[in-house]
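Ticket #4471: structure export looks truncated?
Reporter: QA, pipeline team
Priority: medium

Steps to reproduce: submit the single chain below to the structure queue and open the exported record.
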Amino acid sequence: MMNPNIIKRNELLAEKTIKGLQSRNMSGYYAADKEEALKIALGLIPEGSSVTMGGCMSAHEIGLVDAIKNGNYDFIDRDAYEDKREAMLRAYDADVFLSGANAITDDGVMINIDGNANRVSAIAQGPKKIVFIVGMNKVCPDTDSAMKRARNVAAPVNAQRFGLSTPCSKTGKCYDCKSPDTICCQFLITRFSRHKDRIHVILVNDELGF
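Actual output as written to the record:
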């Protein structure tokens, strides 16, 4: 069971982060646990919607992917496509795109790093709605620390997860490499949304993703 002091800290930090998101024309929500996060997420996704995602571990961890697959939704599952490019291109016209964040600042700026760019490009432009699932372990005090987290925590773990031969996969530290296997090809900083009600961020009182 989580320490009550940590829970209170997360509630206060989430409140600050949500205010930051709102100031950037994005919507923020706080979920006390994974079950509440799932309920909020499904409330943002109308039945019948076309839904797709990048490699969002957080969406899997709260049970959202299974709920979408088993519910009344048109799930564009790229793992079911022989031609992965076709699935990625279909994502740009989807009603809802599910994503995690490599890091988020406590005033609402999100940092995401990508190898193939399908995830960051969909976040930037395309799907009608983006639903982010973000554990409180991803919240950082500023963009510099958020970028460091993305490069030195998220990237090495993902490189290891995919069995890639990068310097960070061997040491756990970013070397700003140009390895053929690098997954740090594109960096996206989301600091404002021109389109109100497009970006929704669910902050979860748990450690999710990497």
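Status: closed, not a bug. The export was complete when the record was re-opened. Leaving a note from the reviewer for reference: Residues 4-204 form a domain with the Rossmann fold fold (CATH 3.40.50.10420).
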